[in-house]
Amino acid sequence: MANGSRQAAWEFFGAELKRRREDAGFTQVELGSRVFVSGGYIGQFEQAIRKPQLDVAQRIDETLQTHGFFERTWRKLIDDKRYADYFAEVVELERAATKLCDFAPVLVPGLLQTAAYARAVTWATNPFAADEYVGETVAARMERAHILDDATRPEYWAILHENVLRIPVGGPSVMAEQLGHIAKLSLERKTLVVVIPHAAGAFAAMAGMVTLMEFEDAPPTAYTEAVYSGTLLDDPGLVMRMRGTYDLLRVAALSPEASLALIESAAEDYRRCASTT
Q1: Class of the CATH-defined domain 97-112+148-275
Q2: In what order do the strands lie in the sheet with 221-226?
Q3: Are 189 and 154 contacting, i.e. CB atoms less than 8 angstroms apart?
Q4: What is the pTM of this model?
């Protein structure tokens, strides 16, 4: 579904929510209290500024007695099977964000991955997958990355642990290309990348990756991911804590200039290794 038609469909979702809420005699605040979000969030759903999570859509159905209408509509709109169910909504939010802040302790974030790196990661986690599945997964990841090429691209920060530079995903040639790509994006000012060196020792968020998302007309959201699961956090208190964690990661990192030098040095090491094999 194209972005324009998808947005129009979300506007329909919002209009139906408003109509059915009013028919049931609820204010935005009253409905919000019954589905465990704020009245302001209900207003943002109705204006298609923000998309509800699946469990919220299900509770709206229960409260308004709409017999699964909002759950079914949600599933049709979040329907890109190239992404895991828990990640499809994140892709939608990325497209609407004005600022994205990633932290990656082990793997290059998806928005920065090259096709060869993405392919190596996909094969590692799905060794028996068909070529078609791998191709679709890689294509979807490359499509996501196009938001960094748009004139209206979000401000994008990425904090990488040095592990990301040192784990030879796909081998020396793939890593040389991957790190060269990150350096190029940094030099083109499409992203600001900093690295937490091994020498920094223990660091915040050692348990996993973190993404913070900010929007023009909606509250910020955080996303964390583990193996085969991911969690969107939009509770203001939790998002504030995650932002504090990101601040701790930022102060543990090298400067942008020193980080770029480390990335370029690691890329050159991989190039030399690739040339001797």
Answers
A1: alpha beta
A2: 192-196, 155-161, 99-104, 209-214, 221-226, 229-233
A3: no
A4: 0.76
